[in-house]
């Protein structure tokens, strides 16, 4: 049985990840592809509890390394319980955020050593990487306006604009370094234009041989 493909959707706040996650799921499903939709942090009961701890606003400052370790703890559980079994069964996995978010938010935003992030990535994931990462790109000012209009802001969404500029720059750096596995989509376009671009990326993925290793 052929292994499933692994697609992740990334971006700063207010880029439209949820809306476009639904679009990708539907686009693949109508083509007869079995797709599992999940998210990070989260995806299992334990990982969802860690997500709540990570996103909750609190008086106690959260140490950056503690935040990083909680994220990878949730990821380790998610991989073993959900992602790896699904891929092994031939199911495609569509995930709202993955390790690129860690490089962007904890590496770019928080300024943590990316070498340390890489060591944790190897420990938790071994050689597993997404086949395609869609990065929805938008000016942080516009994205934060959208996020503020949507719901109450979580702990990350309350960061200042300089933080999100660093996050955006880190995403772009990763995409520019490996264009074969990343696609940057201008999320400031109309929804139809965004989804047209996403559909083009998915069509190219379907015509390429699998690149995922487990």
From TrEMBL:
Keyword Transferase: yes
Leader peptide range in chain numbering: none
Catalyzed reactions per annotation: dTMP + ATP = dTDP + ADP
GO molecular function (one): dTMP kinase activity
Entry EC no(s): 2.7.4.9
Top-level enzyme category: transferase
TM region(s), chain numbering: none
Key words, A-Z: ATP-binding, Kinase, Nucleotide biosynthesis, Nucleotide-binding, Transferase
Residue numbers binding ATP: 11-18
Family: Belongs to the thymidylate kinase family.
Full protein name: Thymidylate kinase
Gene designation per UniProt: tmk
